[in-house]
Design brief:
It contains 8 helices and 14 strands. By secondary structure, it is an alpha/beta fold. It has a 6-stranded mixed β-sheet, sandwiched between helices. A 6-stranded antiparallel barrel has the order 9-10-13-12-11-14. The relative contact order is 0.12.
Length: 283
Amino acid sequence: MKNYSISKNKSEITSIAIGGFDGMHLAHQELFKKLDENGAIVVIQTGYANLTPKTNRAKYTSFPIYFYELQLIKHLSEKEFIVLINQEFVNLKTIVVGYDFRFGYKANGNIDTLKELFNGEVIVVDEFSYNNVAVHSKVIRDMISTGNIIQANELLGKNYIIEGSIIKGQGLGTKQFVPTININVEDFMYPSSGVYITYTYINDIKYQSVTFIGHRVTTDGKFAIETHILNENINNEDINSKISIEFLAKLRDNKKFELYENLKKQILLDIKQSKDYFIKNNN
């Protein structure tokens, strides 16, 4: 098991929360609230996490995180899994799980099984809702995939962020439209195709921006993630630099324009609407 956040001796851990925790959203935070000051998070890493893939979860908690690779433990029976947990955390007194927690070979174990096998306190957290919507990673993924960024952010308890690196673009932005930064993103889920009001972080510097995701149907037809920095003249100069995009709201869907001139008019309108948004929201 690997720890990817705060360094802490596992013998000091007295409580753990167990789950997948992709998104580190509001419902997950309810579990973390039940941990004591010597608590930790145990992530069952499936490889399918795309809201907070891999070690990105560590950015959204002050607790140390330990990762179990599902492929390495899925053969364990329920009893063998608890034995492993007790061996790893020798002073463990409390396990916190969600109401639908399953574990062990073929997920045969449930909460009753956990209470039978673990010689300590088991805290079960009920389903959590926000504004009458049950908070689950799947629900948030569905919202992001349809461009409902505002509500997805509410359930996340933070703004959705993707990370990547700067790559060379097709070169049309600076010449015929507006300068943009082209981004290569791996592991993260993409919001639905369209134009978004965003923040862009380059070298940890935060910029107001407007971002396009989708196939460039008016130009070369290729898929792209491009961001335009508002009020700054920044383009693709720093190839391979790390970059993050924070999504605030969706402006419009992707659209094909018959003339480049019409596309440019729409881009300028997107920029104006984005600037108006930041002014209105004092950002």
